[in-house]
Amino acid sequence: MTMKTVFFAEDEPLARDVLRDAIYAHPGLRLVGEAADGAGALAHITRLRPDVVFMDIQMPEMTGLEVLRRLDYLPQIVFTTAYDQYAVTAFELHAVDYLLKPFTQARFAAAVARLLDGSVHARDTLDSALSHASAAPARLERILVRDRGRIFPLATSEIEYMKADSKYTVIVARGQTFLVRIGISELEAQLDPARFVRIHRSALVNLDFVESMRADEQSQLQIHMRDGAVLGANRDASKILRDMAI
């Protein structure tokens, strides 16, 4: 069996332990390094030039996608993430596989089987792969969210509104709030603009869940949501919403 040198980048300690153990246990893989953030991953991968990289997507300092774009060569990539909305971009960047966390041992073994298959390798140059990734992304239909130890899919049509929280986004849906590790601007770029409207820098609303809109003393709209929340729209957003009215 051909031995592959492997590097992985993962910022969650528990997920790092799981991935490390899985790599050590496979006779066809030899672990040569690991990192807990994007900057460290870029530096180590550039120096070590491993055959295979298991790469988390949402990491401190830079995302896994940004790391891949900065590499001067194209290793075999398996993306590992809790967010399924990146799958299209991952395969446009010629990822060999895409592991959705938490993944099973059987799913990991299937990904490694593809890595060790001689017909699966870095087909194109990095420049060619990245040119494909510049295409407009598909609309996001669902996002995986965490709640009390569970991970489950949430349809974007169920999202009522979102609020920015530093590098995170608070999603309100199903009468609950969920904190996801993705910026509100990144989410907005993948959502249907006919349904979701950015009402100010840190808030995005789904028009399907708006009860009414009323102007305040400065003629800026106050957005009354069905759950009773009231969100203020800035001047630009207020104009856009007024223009949408028939």
From TrEMBL:
Its domain of life reads Bacteria
Q: Which residues carry this modification: 4-aspartylphosphate?
A: 56
Taking every annotated instance into account, which residue ranges of this chain make up the domain HTH LytTR-type? Answer: 143-246
Which GO molecular-function terms appear in the entry?
DNA binding
SUPFAM superfamilies given in the database record: CheY-like
What Pfam families does this protein's entry cite?
A: LytTR (PF04397), Response_reg (PF00072)
Q: Give the Response regulatory domain ranges.
A: 5-116
Keywords for the protein's UniProt record, in alphabetical order: DNA-binding, Phosphoprotein
Q: Which InterPro entries match?
A: CheY-like_superfamily, LytR-like, LytTR_DNA-bd_dom, Sig_transdc_resp-reg_receiver
Recorded hits in Gene3D superfamilies, A to Z, give: 3.40.50.2300, LytTr DNA-binding domain (2.40.50.1020)
Stated name of the protein: LytTR family DNA-binding domain-containing protein
User: What organism does the UniProt record list as the source?
Assistant: Massilia agri
